[in-house]
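User: I'm writing a tutorial on reading structure tokens. Could you give me a worked example: one chain, its sequence, then its tokens, then a sentence or two explaining what the tokens reveal?
Assistant: Sure. Here is the example chain.
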Amino acid sequence: MGALAARASQQMSRLVRERLRLARAEKREKGRRLGAGGGGCWTARGCSGC
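And here are its predicted structure tokens:
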């Protein structure tokens, strides 16, 4: 029973680490898209009022 609990704990830890890694990658990608698009709110005359 102890081995089963240890394995479950290891799998849970790995799952959490992978989820955090994915969340960081998604955040970086979102930042790149916003940076490339300039936020979409600004025009040549300034803020478009969105």
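What the tokens reveal: Residues 2-37 form the longest helix (36 residues). Strands lie at 42-43, 46-47.
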